[in-house]
Write a structure and sequence with these properties.
Distance between the termini: 38 Å
Strand content: 15-25%
Structural class: alpha/beta
Number of helices: 11
Shape: globular
Number of strands: 16
Number of domains: 2
CATH superfamily of the largest domain: Glycosidases
CATH architecture of the largest domain: Alpha-Beta Barrel
Length: 353
């Protein structure tokens, strides 16, 4: 039986790929490099073997092996495949630098190292009992925030007690796709798209939802803004830049985004202030953190610490499968296995009985 890889190496996490035939190039792309296949090339060894060592932070990392710049494949030496339906290889790096490869589901009888050693953060009771309904305003109602308020009876009849509202801020214009653009290409974190209503109407909607005993969560874009974000000119150092000194986003095929430069502490402070604004001004109860699996974990921890100062029972939902997020910064992470189960039920691949 071949040993599992990646594994702990001399200088970090060691990736190994054994090609069945001669190939031109091999790379590793994943959440740790924004899925950029050009960033981390593997070195050719003997007998069609390719290797690479990377220093990776603690936490869970998803990745694929990229062969000849075009073929994205699962790592043949890693049996752990992510639960998100995207079929990515998965590893967890511990605080000591060890590499964990999950070979079975986590259960009470087999909790795994992380669940044996650590306890998750204390979370507010309401998020433990949340029945969450995700919606984009324009797809759910033609009436904007007023229309949402009118739908609260319907949502309550469904048993919903928590609403997750997708981004409703102004969307960038430059390189926009479609008439309305990607709602996650936010141009101004403090803005409200006038199609949905006014700040007073938003505040009235949230107040009415609270009267119904519902919590309201705002979908927050963690790693990027639109390529024409209002800060790209006034604070270009807040954003990542390419070799031509142009604002860009590392994730491929997303030209309408500008990536945030997490090494800039002023940028971090600006984001935290913007998130705090939506809590103090409108009384949001929490945030769903978009693509937080590529956000530095210490920044997520900074966000949590700051928001707890303004709302003690705030909740953060991480769009990640990283167990470490439970230990340091977030109340919920994703479990893709339920999504796949629902899909199988819908396609009648399994039955309730």
């Amino acid at each position: 039986m071949k040993p599992y890889f990646p594994a702990r190496g001399e200088h970090g996490v060691k990736f190994v790929y054994e090609a069945e035939e001669d190939v031109r190039c091999v790379a590793v792309a994943g959440t740790f490099n924004s899925w950029d296949a050009a960033r981390h090339r593997m070195a050719r060894r003997e007998n069609h073997t390719w290797e690479l060592e990377l220093k990776l932070p603690e936490g869970r990392h998803l990745y694929k092996i990229v062969v000849n710049d075009s073929e994205w494949i699962l790592d043949p030496l890693n049996p752990n495949v992510s639960e998100d339906g995207q079929h990515n290889s998965s590893i967890t790096v511990t605080e000591q630098g060890d590499v964990l490869i999950r070979t079975s589901d986590i259960t009470e009888q087999a909790p795994g190292i992380l669940y044996e050693r650590f306890h998750s953060l204390d979370s507010p009771e309401w998020i433990r009992r949340a029945v969450i309904y995700q919606l984009h305003i324009s797809a759910f109602t033609e009436g904007g925030f007023i229309g949402l308020a009118d739908k609260l009876d319907y949502l309550q009849q469904l048993g919903v007690n928590t609403l997750w509202i997708m981004p409703f801020q102004e969307v960038g214009v430059e390189k926009r796709i479609g008439s309305f653009g990607d709602p996650y290409a936010v141009r101004d974190y403090y803005s409200i798209d006038s199609r949905f209503g006014t700040s007073d109407e938003l505040q009235a909607f949230i107040a009415k939802a609270h009267e119904y005993g519902m919590r309201v969560i705002l979908d927050w874009v963690m790693n990027r803004g639109s390529v024409d974000h209002i800060l790209t000119r006034s604070h270009p150092d807040y954003f990542t830049r390419n070799e031509n000194n142009e604002v860009y986003y590392e994730v491929p095929n997303r030209d309408y985004f500008a990536g945030l430069n997490f090494e800039n502490e002023e940028m971090r402070a600006y984001i935290i202030e913007a998130m705090t604004y939506w809590v103090t001004r409108f009384d949001f109860d929490g945030f769903r953190l978009d693509d937080s699996d590529i956000t530095p974990m210490n920044f997520l921890a900074q966000i949590r610490q700051a928001l707890l100062k303004v709302k003690a029972d705030i909740a953060l939902i991480s769009q990640s499968y990283d167990e470490y997020h439970h230990l340091e910064c977030c109340d919920l992470t994703y479990d893709g296995s339920l999504r796949l189960t629902i899909k199988d039920l819908a396609e009648r691949k399994i039955t309730r009985g």
